[in-house]
Design a protein that fits this description.
Two copies of one chain form a homodimer.
Chain A lengths: L4 H33 L2 H8 L3 H8 L2 H24 L9 H17 L2 H13 L4 H10 L1 H17 L8 H14 L2 H5 L6 H19 L8
Helix pairs in contact in A: 1-2, 1-4, 1-6, 2-3, 4-5, 4-6, 5-11, 7-8, 8-9, 9-11
Chain B binds a DNA duplex through helix 1 and helix 3.
DNA sequence: GACGATTTGGACAAGCCTGTCTAAAAATAT
DNA sequence: ATATTTTTAGACAGGCTTGTCCAAATCGTC
């Protein structure tokens, strides 16, 4: 009754490839047009798939949105986790390494395609379907801030920083990193590698002027 | 041929009251539902007006959106200008006065009903109708930043601040002021007066740690 | 009270979109 | 090669929305 293993995964692969393609196209269209304005024919066309196939895979327009949001938040969370692991815990040149870290953060999480999509979907559909994002809301930014705050606290303990409140400092770091990019992002402009580095450099310079110490006490 | 003055302004008053009511309702609906999802019947109902009257006043759905955006950007610009005039040019207690200024900025411009609407409309329709916001884009944030930067530069000249680049400092000031409110705003939560003051206090403390001088040289 | 303009409610056509159905086509595994 | 499953293209009903038209009603002024 159950088929052999090989055919199953072969079917699943094609199946999953189409599924992924649909999710990708849907993310783009939902993001551009909003949920109400999104046209399933257009999604199907952009996915290179017939409309019926979209319905076969996800059943409903609303269901499709749910799947898209789940996919994106999962990828975002993975990206944040991965990038957070590259935080300079044992810096040699703190300023340079924080700048690199900030650039990675922007490239992998905030200025990302996924980051842009999540931000936009959140803004357009967040109030209408609050339960859609409630999972991310609980496990997303709060955890990121806490993790970043812990890193900064460790840096402070090692004598690199002078912090009153690591949580506040973490939020301020993220805010500063985005300071020069907000307008570009809100207008949907693309940001060059150059702009990204300059923004990160400005942010880190300000951050270290506020919270940096001249030398770690260990040296 | 031309009627007397009184009837004219009386007619215009009722006319303009309805017009304003429609614009107000339309702003709310466009913002909640997006352009595609906005229902003109709903706008009319929320404005307390018949659908036909909406068409009489603004002709077209797209036209209505244009009118809404124009109205909001004009009000926002006025609010920014007004608030900017309350910048502490001759401070006694710089930290306290900057905190007050930041609170005003948030209340009158950023966390405002208008501010929220503009942000959301910009995000949802900005890429589809770029020319809609091009006017604000040119004359809005850039001018605000420049004006704020000039104030900071004057403060630096008076010995209160130590700035490399006033423009960067102005952007960072605004970014810091929003640091603690971003999540609340993105989720559409309302922010209490308390949160607003706390956020402003955190922002100003960080800003002054980075750029403040102990005393102005004039004293 | 009469007059002119505005507003109203409802009817209406036209278009678009969702979601379903069906039969043909394509792809895959055996 | 055949059988099974997936995919496709198209038609289709149903619903909703925009924008227009029109006759009745309302409002403010003379």
């Amino acid at each position: 009754m159950t088929p052999a293993i090989a055919p199953d995964i072969a079917v699943v692969r094609s199946h999953s490839a189409k599924r992924h393609s649909i999710l990708d196209a849907a993310a783009g269209v939902f993001c551009r047009e909003g949920f109400a304005g999104a046209n399933i024919d257009l999604i199907a066309a952009e996915a290179g798939v017939s409309r019926q196939t979209v319905y076969n895979h996800h059943g409903d327009k609303e269901n499709l949105l749910v799947a898209v949001v789940r996919e994106i938040t999962e990828r975002i969370n993975a990206g944040v986790f991965e990038t957070l692991a590259t935080f300079p815990d044992k810096p040699v040149n703190l300023e340079a390494e924080l700048v690199d870290f900030a650039v990675r953060l922007n490239q992998n999480c905030l200025c990302n395609r996924d980051g842009k999509f999540l931000r936009k979907l959140l803004q357009t559909e967040g109030e209408r379907y609050p339960e859609l994002f409630s999972g991310w809301r609980e496990h997303g930014p709060a955890k990121t801030w806490a993790a970043l705050a812990a890193r900064f606290a460790r840096l402070a303990h090692a004598g690199w920083l002078d912090l009153d409140d690591p949580d506040v400092a973490a939020r301020q770091f993220l805010a500063l990193v985005n300071a020069d990019l907000q307008m570009a992002m809100i207008f949907g402009d693309s940001v060059s590698e150059e702009q990204l580095r300059a923004a990160a450099a400005n942010a880190v310079r300000c951050f270290l002027r506020a919270y940096g110490k001249a030398r770690p006490h260990g040296t």
